[in-house]
Write a structure and sequence with these properties.
339 residues, alpha+beta, Phosphorylase Kinase, domain 1, Aminoglycoside 3'-phosphotransferase, Chain: A, domain 2, 2 domains, five-stranded antiparallel beta sheet, two-stranded antiparallel ribbon, 10 helices, 40% helix
């Protein structure tokens, strides 16, 4: 048994035997900041992945692994690249929290959007696979796959602006004029929503597993923010990578085009629109302002936790300092959009 494992194997073993007729040989917790702890379970006949809610008291809507399981169970039969769902256990008595089991998809995780180890042709193929997988998700009719009630009706961006305004207010520590301007401007200028799609909510390169030997997307992971909404939320969130300085993560500003192999943002818009039957994506500046406002709300929450002593890591403290610059960047895009 490897790593820091906090699962009760004495309780998990009989559940596995009864559910899949297999028993664990080794359990390893995956590193990383997932809010739902995730484990690799190597058993006699294969490998699985187990995701559970955190132990202890949780907010009612947080860490909704039941929703995640429902989503992958709906998408898997369509051929969309998600892991095969195996079983959902809502009985917290088994390991201390509800959890689900899914197949482990073998492949590669790419953490750095610059893809320094790949050739230009390989980079291009991986970016096109990433764009095409997002377009394929947005082409799925939620009603047809039994997800017609997976999100609230109405304008998605309207709800999201209101939600992140509430989140920001609940954790506010400073008076930032840029944020106040955004809170006033964004709700007044929300674009009309043309269609309803399944929205991933955090679609970026390190939430994908690529095939071992090709650029094919073998699995899209981490659906905890998924809902029904405006497909342009996902797509413009992905496009933010082209506006984000290279950081060893997904940011690739200044690295695309030319002989880099990484498609220019305009090419990405053209390909996505062709795949989804759109004429174009007008007014990208509004969406970039919104995406940065959302990030401001998320990071403000981290800042409050740092101040309260609930987020002690140096990385959290560094991130918390970014609130004013994120808000300023969001307002710059808002101004470009006519604010």
């Amino acid at each position: 048994m490897g790593g820091d494992v906090d699962l009760d194997l004495d309780r998990l073993t009989p559940w596995l035997a009864a559910t899949v007729g297999d028993g664990p040989v080794a359990v390893t917790r995956y590193p990383g900041g997932q809010s739902n702890p995730t484990y690799r379970v190597d058993a006699a006949r294969g490998s699985y992945v187990l995701r559970r809610k955190p132990f202890g008291v949780l907010l009612p809507s947080a860490h909704a692994i039941e929703r995640e399981y429902r989503l992958i169970a709906a998408l898997h039969p369509t051929g969309y690249p998600v892991p095969r769902p195996i079983a959902l256990c809502e009985d917290a008595g088994v390991i201390g929290a509800p959890f689900y089991l899914m197949e482990r998809v073998a492949g590669r995780t790419i953490w750095n959007g610059a893809m320094p180890d790949l050739s230009p042709d390989e980079r291009r193929a991986h970016y096109w696979a990433m764009v095409d997988a997002l377009a394929a998700l947005h082409a799925i009719d939620p009603v047809t796959v039994g997800l017609g009630d997976y999100g609230k009706p109405g304008n998605y961006f309207e709800r999201q602006v209101a939600r992140w305004t509430r989140q920001y207010r609940a954790s506010q520590t400073d008076d930032l004029p840029d944020v106040e301007r955004l809170i006033e401007w964004l709700p007044r200028t929300v674009p009309a929503q043309e269609r309803v799609a399944i929205v991933h909510g955090d679609y970026r390169i390190d939430n994908l597993i690529f095939a071992e030997d090709s650029a094919r997307v073998a699995a899209v992971l981490d659906w905890e923010l998924s809902t029904l909404g405006d497909a342009l939320a996902d797509f413009t969130y992905l496009l933010m990578n082209w506006m984000t300085p290279p950081d060893g993560r997904s940011g690739i500003a200044g690295l695309s085009g030319g002989d880099s192999g990484i498609p220019a943002m305009e090419e990405v818009v053209t390909r996505y629109c062709a795949a989804t039957g759109r004429d174009g994506v007008p007014g990208l500046d509004w969406y970039f302002a919104y995406n940065l406002f959302r990030l401001t709300g998320i990071v403000q929450g981290i800042k409050q936790r740092v101040r309260d002593g609930n987020a002690s890591s140096a990385q959290a403290a560094r991130m918390a300092e970014r609130v004013p610059e994120l808000a300023a960047a969001a307002w710059r895009f808002a101004q470009q959009a006519g604010a």
